[in-house]
Amino acid sequence: MKSMVLDVKADDTTARVRESAGRMRSAGSASLWRSLLAAGCACSMMPVACISADATDEEEALGQAREMLVLAAGDPDALVRGDGVSAVVYRSSGDGHIRELTIGSPWQAWDLTAASGAPAAASDPVGYVRADQVSAVVYRSSGDNHIRELTIGSPWQAGDLSAATGAPAAAGEPFAYVRGGGDHSVVLYRSSGDNHIRELTLHKSAGSSWQKWDLTATTGAPAAASDPVGYVRGDGLSAVVYRSSGDNHIRELALGSSGWTKWDLSAATGAPAAAGKPFAYVRGDGVSAVVYRSSGDNHIRELTLGSSGWQAWDLTATTGAPAAASDPIAYVRHDGLSAVVYRSSGDNHIRELALGSSGWTKWDLTAATGAPAATGTPSAYVRADGVSAVVFRSSADRHVRELTLDGSGWQDWDLTVNSD
């Protein structure tokens, strides 16, 4: 049964469906092959091409096989779970379910919404490992705009962090990280109506409960125009960055020994106004950096914190790379190089700006791998097996794709097709 059901989703879909149909027809049982295929379909947990019993012929069955792949509605996110498993999470088209793809031969596909009984998603998910080493996925739910958390287990468990804390409804997409010191799990989001930066925190000690905080009210910072991103800076301070409303400046809220303070990084550096959502990380050389797309020219900009304070750089001008159509993300590759990844304007290619010993260089990962054009914003991480990977949603078919870098160079993979 598995060979007749699961095998109809790969690139040789047509050949395998027709082969199965031919075998059944030759046995004089045209209705039997349809029934057997339908009986073996377990679509709730797998992005497989299932064929229903009311498919009237081979071509109709083939059409259903193509249509039943679980397609992505938004941008995927990637993480290494607390149990060492590399995983990609995304929101599926049509049902708004949170789906997970876990590495294997082949990759395995799971429906976390169905497994946990959680409500459908209105935002893309973000995955991380909490301070207590529990793997978790957070998102904004449809209908009530609550912040929801799915935590790994047998089965996965669903929690409503908004209801648990009494926090206000959310707008946009949440972000999750562990603060400096490693004691607190943090979920950040922009609240609906007032566009304040909100923080939900959980101490790692047993019996702790989630707490809510209004960082905008605490610091007197301006309202947000973008969703926030949090990270631990190179100096150990926890920081939240976002684009402010009205002036489109990059703002930072930093947690020091005396509490939260606010900073205007655009004003401090003279950097141009921003578009979209910034991203922050610590480079391979230990430098704290914020990357963003500038308004007007869609250049990739970098703000770095050195001994003399924050400085602004134009990575697009430095490298001659094409303008951006998406917001940038950044990570440190397995080889120690700092890399900024984004989708370029015009051709929708996945581009990489990498910082090596001789400075920044530009690369076209789409051209290098022959991968299809992208949509949305990519994500990047180092898998548990030490492979650098960029995941994105392809524009034409809405598949989840992975570009991987190993000893043989960059390669392209279709995770939607190649997962059971």
Notes on the structure:
By secondary structure, this protein is of the alpha+beta class. Among the domains are: about 70 residues, no CATH class; about 150 residues, Glycosyl hydrolase domain, family 43 (Tachylectin-2, Chain A). It has 10 helices and 28 strands. The strands form 7 sheets. Strands 1-2-3-4 form a 4-stranded antiparallel β-sheet. A 4-stranded antiparallel β-sheet has the order 5-6-7-8. The protein has a 4-stranded antiparallel β-sheet with strand order 9-10-11-12. Strand 26 and strand 27 form a beta hairpin. The longest helix is centred in the N-terminal third of the chain and has 14 residues. The chain is globular, with a radius of gyration of 23 Å. The N terminus is likely disordered.
For the structure shown, list the relevant keywords:
420 residues; alpha+beta; Tachylectin-2, Chain A; 4-stranded antiparallel sheet; 16% helix; globular; disordered N terminus
Secondary structure layout:
Blueprint: H1 2-5, H2 13-26, H3 30-39, H4 58-67, E1 77-80, E2 86-91, E3 98-102, E4 108-111, H5 112-116, E5 126-129, E6 135-140, E7 147-151, E8 157-160, H6 161-165, E9 170-178, E10 184-191, E11 197-203, E12 211-214, H7 215-219, E13 229-232, E14 238-243, E15 250-256, E16 259-264, H8 265-269, E17 274-282, E18 288-294, E19 300-306, E20 309-314, H9 315-319, E21 329-332, E22 338-343, E23 350-356, E24 359-364, H10 365-369, E25 374-382, E26 388-394, E27 400-406, E28 409-414
Antiparallel strand pairs: 1-2, 2-3, 3-4, 5-6, 6-7, 7-8, 9-10, 10-11, 11-12, 13-14, 14-15, 15-16, 17-18, 18-19, 19-20, 21-22, 22-23, 23-24, 25-26, 26-27, 27-28
Helix pairs in contact: 2-3, 2-4
